[in-house]
Amino acid sequence: VQLQASGGGLVQSGGSLRVACVASGFDLEHYAVGWFRQAPGKERKGLSYISSDSDTGTGYYEDSVKGRFTISRDNAKNTVYLQMNGLKSEDTAVYYCAAEPGIERRYGRTWYKAPPALWVGYWGQGTLVTVSS
After folding, report:
1. Are the beta carbons of 99 and 114 closer than 8 angstroms?
2. DSSP 3-state of 85
3. pLDDT digit string (tens) for 41-58?
């Protein structure tokens, strides 16, 4: 049972990248999923979240990435993606995904505001995104 984040790499400022969060051993469609990032010397912060409802889920975004990043899920591939466009140097970080069972039920309508410490389910190992200016 694990999550694996992949797809990171080196990209120029203004470019695009798509990172993937693949689950094995459990059905990711039944879990809310969040993408987080941690820059060197900084705390891990949440970026984008997708709910477990319906076939596609509802996406939520932090202000810093709203309009540039898009979260989506492909249940057939047991995968959640984060499409990142208009990348900036300040987006450079290690990107992590997490899947948390029951977080929507525990925290209600604002479940996506739960800090990283409350995501105690599954975490991917992280994938490095480097944006060159």
Report:
1. no
2. coil
3. 999 999 999 998 666 688
